[in-house]
């Protein structure tokens, strides 16, 4: 199945880049303008239907004689104000007027006026801002509108809409994003301002984030560790929830979505209202899905259940904003029955057996194996305005519960094999300090405390031990203008202390306390190149301490055995410490360069990157052992140096007012440079071409859009060697050590063939209803994704008809 | 400013309170019931005489050490034996055989041997073809064979052959035709076998 409904994402990226000038302007306003009555407010006024600028709209300030009208670009500016907070009144003949409370420290408002004869209300969106706070780092954004038609997909699949993002999957339900070849602990997800803290170590542990709760998603392609802390080696994904604005009438929507494949039904509801000084938001959603189907057979036990709920409030007082947010996400995900194998012989059979074992007719039942996850997030944050500077503060608390059920004997079958609970508390403080000479910037502090516990009663020795984690970070990021160029520099210091308590395979207790610290830095520049283009360059370092699973995991994982860095020493399974084997942190340096160009008809973005990772942790085969269950290859964690080089390119072209083409390509080469070998599971090259027809209005329908999206994914040619189960068994029988001469990584199967997918969609609005119809995998192509672990067992999902209906309040 | 300080202070005290109740308890002992470390084959001559046993031991479970003991099976020529299989979890000192009996509907033993060393059953066993003969003495609640007890009559003296025992876990998959490829392998062991 494919999830490629690529909209003009690079456009948003370019919009952000061009916005830099505006941001610089607001930096310039950093002095206390109230004292000398030099405060200034700017904004843009657009038609809500077609997003075209409205000229000559009137902008006035309540209780003040000052006012202005918008220019031909819809832009307005009111200067010489003695207050940094005002109530704006925007009106224009034929449109509905709107009031908006604005302070100059917020981003510029974008006022979207609705026609008087429309049912829609006029709204205000506080302008695009640079999420990372760094203008030199490449960012792309999926805005609320682009996300609208994607948000019934998994989080990972939605992110695939970004050029340079691939996915690593365990079937269609467990999807993790991969940024420039890195995933799991090597990328960072900031959900609602908080680092998403979960059992990130496993490929089969997808982030527990419900996209239908998100308002927009931003991708940062650089190593933004300085701002966000450890793990941001590949990049950062920032998910922002819908948040209420002040002075907004009751808004909301109710949406219902059905999909033919999996026979699923989903619905969501959201309501927002803003008063003078406060606002609230409430959201809920749910999905009920049965077995998915590949073109030729049902994928038995691939149903899902998902429920989510979120609540937010905003309070505003002069100079102070305080927000409160709570969300809860429940997930139950079935995993393909035929993906369960006992030993290598079972695997060998499963690799050739199609349809997979246990395949039955359609059912909504979820049996074993399956996962249950609950993620709860509570946070309170605020912004305090000190006129010449400001302070952002945030406290977050997350509870992540994960239970995994395997096919087991007897009563154990109803017990989870993995039952983990992770509590995370975090405090963030940022001081946007007053300008120091030419420099403006932020000084920040972060504190994190985590407690990870195995819930007793699994009847297995825990795969990872219990641990406590405390981490402190301080950083600063500064920027200044050098002519037309914006230069940036930042440094961060982190220290982490971990206490581990676990049991070895004989139930003997082991404990260890250890710490990691690191200094990271970033330097970058952004430069306008003529009126339509810009160039950004950023060199950033990032780091991550080894994960507890990489240090301590022990035992059977899928169809291999794995031993952590501190569980295997000198060919023995032994619990060791840093005294026997020092495990330095992974350290990365990523250099990202982006050239963007945009004029009326053409938008272009080119991003090239190099990422060098030192002490990169990976697993390598170390031998084959016989157990009562049969022979298994065993892998040990190891460290090496890795190099990732790639290119993302996207271009869109308006052929006419109604026709638009978009092409995108992502290329990535990755290598273990120390051992001169390839890694398993690096996303192959990918090409996309989309054609959109946007007549806008057709008979009584508005926002009419018809699209055809095509995607070609190449076969990965840079993959490690293949060793078949037969070769492993033969070597064991003949007492040959397969890995003595060559301990490079291997795969049981060669990479999947390339494949071509086509999707199509139709959107339109009628009255207060938005309709979205889509056919995914239109040709019902049978294919397997190289980065899907279930490619060993079954084809990917076949054709899928999707229909959603949204009612807007 | 006063307001802010107050909020920050109360936030911090809240955080400190919360984090100080974090547990640094030792993880409790789990009973890994499912691990099978010792498999014993007991061949008892039906006409009387001393039983012959062959075992396989894997004391480190999923650890990297190979099976410790796989003693060869040495049987007398032209003799009928009852083979009983016992399974033990030595880490927990727990008899897993009972669990297999309780769950007989989900389990099935398969056998494979080389050199046509038995006169009854003849052939090479039912691991390659389920329909091939194996003399099961026991059955599950649905009347399908199980294999904890089987009957064997040896042929002439021979050596250098192998005897493979596979226990499959076939929840909802076990039928009169389910094969060695269905379900998950709980045991897959091969012994050398000599007929004297």
UniProtKB/TrEMBL annotation, chain A:
Compartment annotation: Cell outer membrane
Pfam families given in the database record: CarbopepD_reg_2, Plug, TonB_dep_Rec_b-barrel
Stretch forming the signal peptide: 1-28
Keyword Membrane in annotation: yes
Sequence ranges assigned to domain TonB-dependent receptor plug in this UniProt record: 138-236
Gene3D superfamilies reported for this sequence: Carboxypeptidase-like, regulatory domain, TonB-dependent receptor, beta-barrel domain, TonB-dependent receptor, plug domain
InterPro entries per UniProt: Beta-barrel_TonB, Beta-barrel_TonB_sf, CarboxyPept-like_regulatory, Plug_dom, Plug_dom_sf, TonB-dep_rcpt-like
Protein topology in the membrane: Multi-pass membrane protein
Secreted among keywords: no
Main location: membrane
Domain of life: Bacteria
Domain TonB-dependent receptor-like beta-barrel stretches: 307-778
Assigned keywords, A-Z: Cell outer membrane, Membrane, Receptor, Signal, TonB box, Transmembrane, Transmembrane beta strand, Transport
UniProt family annotation: Belongs to the TonB-dependent receptor family.
PANTHER family: TONB-DEPENDENT OUTER MEMBRANE RECEPTOR (PTHR30069), TONB-DEPENDENT RECEPTOR NMB0964-RELATED (PTHR30069:SF40)
Protein name: TonB-dependent receptor
Organism whose genome encodes this protein: Splendidivirga corallicola
UniProtKB/TrEMBL annotation, chain B:
Annotated signal sequence range: 1-24
Keywords attached to this entry: Signal
Domain of life: Bacteria
Protein's UniProt keywords contain Signal: yes
Protein name: GTP cyclohydrolase
Protein species of origin: Splendidivirga corallicola
Source organism phylogeny: Bacteria, Pseudomonadati, Bacteroidota, Cytophagia, Cytophagales
């Amino acid at each position: 199945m494919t999830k490629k409904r690529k909209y003009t994402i690079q456009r948003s990226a370019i919009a952000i880049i061009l916005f830099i000038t505006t941001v610089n302007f607001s930096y310039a306003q950093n002095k206390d303008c109230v004292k000398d009555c030099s405060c200034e407010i700017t904004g843009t006024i657009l038609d809500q239907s077609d997003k075209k600028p409205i000229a000559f709209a009137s902008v006035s300030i309540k209780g003040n004689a000052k006012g202005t009208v918008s220019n031909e670009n819809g832009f307005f500016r009111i200067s010489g104000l003695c207050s940094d907070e005002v109530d704006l009144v925007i009106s224009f003949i034929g449109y509905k007027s709107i009031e908006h409370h604005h302070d100059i420290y917020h981003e510029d408002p974008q006022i979207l006026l609705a026609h008087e004869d429309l049912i829609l209300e006029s709204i205000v969106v506080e302008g695009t801002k640079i999420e990372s706070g760094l203008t030199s780092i490449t960012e792309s954004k999926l805005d609320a509108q682009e996300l609208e038609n994607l948000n019934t997909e998994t989080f990972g699949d939605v992110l695939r809409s970004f050029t340079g993002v691939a996915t690593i999957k365990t079937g269609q339900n467990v999807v993790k994003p991969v940024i420039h070849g890195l995933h799991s602990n090597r990328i960072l997800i900031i959900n609602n301002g908080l680092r998403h803290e979960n059992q990130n170590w496993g490929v089969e542990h997808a982030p527990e984030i419900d996209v239908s709760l998100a308002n927009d998603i931003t991708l940062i392609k650089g190593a933004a560790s300085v701002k966000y802390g450890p793990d941001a080696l590949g990049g950062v994904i920032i998910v922002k929830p819908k948040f209420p604005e002040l002075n907004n009438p009751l808004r909301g929507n109710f949406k219902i979505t059905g999909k033919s494949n999996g026979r699923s039904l989903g619905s969501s509801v959201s309501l927002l209202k803003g008063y003078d000084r406060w606002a609230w938001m409430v959201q809920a959603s749910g999905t009920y899905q049965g077995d998915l189907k590949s073109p030729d057979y049902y994928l038995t036990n691939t149903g899902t259940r998902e429920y989510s709920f979120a609540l937010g409030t905003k309070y505003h007082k002069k100079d102070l904003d305080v927000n409160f947010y709570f969300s809860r996400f429940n997930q139950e995900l079935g995993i393909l029955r035929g993906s369960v194998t006992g030993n290598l012989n079972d695997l060998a059979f499963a690799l050739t057996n199609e349809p997979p074992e246990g395949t039955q007719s359609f059912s909504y039942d979820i049996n074993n194996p399956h996962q249950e996850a609950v993620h709860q997030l509570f946070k309170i944050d605020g912004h305090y305005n000190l006129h010449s500077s400001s302070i952002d503060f945030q406290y977050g608390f997350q509870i992540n519960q994960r239970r995994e059920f395997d096919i087991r004997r007897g009563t154990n079958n109803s017990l989870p094999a993995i039952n983990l609970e992770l509590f995370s508390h975090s405090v963030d403080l940022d001081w946007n300090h007053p300008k120091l000479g030419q420099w403006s910037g932020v000084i920040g502090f972060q504190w994190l405390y985590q407690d990870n516990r195995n819930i007793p009663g699994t009847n297995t020795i825990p795969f990872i031990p219990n641990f406590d984690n405390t981490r402190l970070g301080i950083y600063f990021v500064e920027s200044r203008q050098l002519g037309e160029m914006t230069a940036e520099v930042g440094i961060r210091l982190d220290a982490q202390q971990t206490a581990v308590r676990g049991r070895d395979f004989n139930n003997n207790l082991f404990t260890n306390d250890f710490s990691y610290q690191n200094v990271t830095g970033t330097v970058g520049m952004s430069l306008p190149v003529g009126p339509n283009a810009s160039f950004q360059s950023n060199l950033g370092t990032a780091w991550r301490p080894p994960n507890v699973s990489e240090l301590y995991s022990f035992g059977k994982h899928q169809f291999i055995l794995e031993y952590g860095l501190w569980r295997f020493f000198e060919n023995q399974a032994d619990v060791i410490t840093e005294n026997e084997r020092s495990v330095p942190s992974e350290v990365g340096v990523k250099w990202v360069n982006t050239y963007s160009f945009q004029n009326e008809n053409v938008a272009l973005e080119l991003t090239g990157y190099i990422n060098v990772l030192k002490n990169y942790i990976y697993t390598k085969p170390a031998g084959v052992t016989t157990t009562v269950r049969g022979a298994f290859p065993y892998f040990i964690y190891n460290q090496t140096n890795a190099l990732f080089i790639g290119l993302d390119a996207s271009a869109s072209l308006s052929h006419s007012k109604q026709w638009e083409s978009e092409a995108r390509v992502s290329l990535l080469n990755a290598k273990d440079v120390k051992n001169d070998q390839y890694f398993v599971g690096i996303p192959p090259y990918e090409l996309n071409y989309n054609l959109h027809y946007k007549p806008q209005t057709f008979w009584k329908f508005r926002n009419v859009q018809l699209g055809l999206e095509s995607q070609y994914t190449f076969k990965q040619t840079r993959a490690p060697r293949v060793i078949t189960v037969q070769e492993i068994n033969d070597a064991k029988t003949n007492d040959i050590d397969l890995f003595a001469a060559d301990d490079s990584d291997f795969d049981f199967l060669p990479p999947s063939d390339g494949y071509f997918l086509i999707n199509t969609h139709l959107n339109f609005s009628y009255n207060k209803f938005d309709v979205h119809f889509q056919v995914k995998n239109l040709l019902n192509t049978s294919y397997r994704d190289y980065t899907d672990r279930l490619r060993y067992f079954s084809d990917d999902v076949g054709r899928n008809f999707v229909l959603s209906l949204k009612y807007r309040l | 400013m006063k307001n802010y300080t107050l909020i920050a202070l109360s936030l911090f005290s809240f955080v400190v309170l919360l984090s100080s109740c974090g547990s640094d308890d030792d993880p409790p002992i789990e009973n890994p019931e499912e691990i099978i470390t010792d498999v014993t084959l007991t061949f008892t001559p039906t006409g009387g005489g001393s039983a012959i046993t062959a075992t396989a031991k894997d004391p480190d479970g999923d650890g990297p050490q190979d099976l410790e003991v796989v003693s060869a099976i040495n049987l007398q020529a032209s003799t009928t034996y009852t083979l009983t299989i016992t399974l033990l979890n030595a880490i927990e000192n727990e008899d897993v055989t009972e669990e297999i009996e309780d769950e007989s509907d989900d389990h099935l033993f398969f056998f494979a041997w080389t050199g046509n060393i038995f006169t009854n059953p003849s052939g090479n066993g039912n691991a390659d073809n389920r329909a091939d003969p194996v003399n099961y003495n026991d059955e599950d609640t649905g009347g399908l064979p199980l294999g904890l007890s089987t009957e064997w009559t040896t042929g002439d003296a021979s050596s250098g052959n192998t005897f493979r025992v596979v226990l499959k876990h076939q929840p909802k998959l076990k039928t009169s035709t389910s094969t060695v490829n269905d379900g998950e392998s709980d045991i897959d062991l091969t012994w050398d076998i000599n007929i004297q």
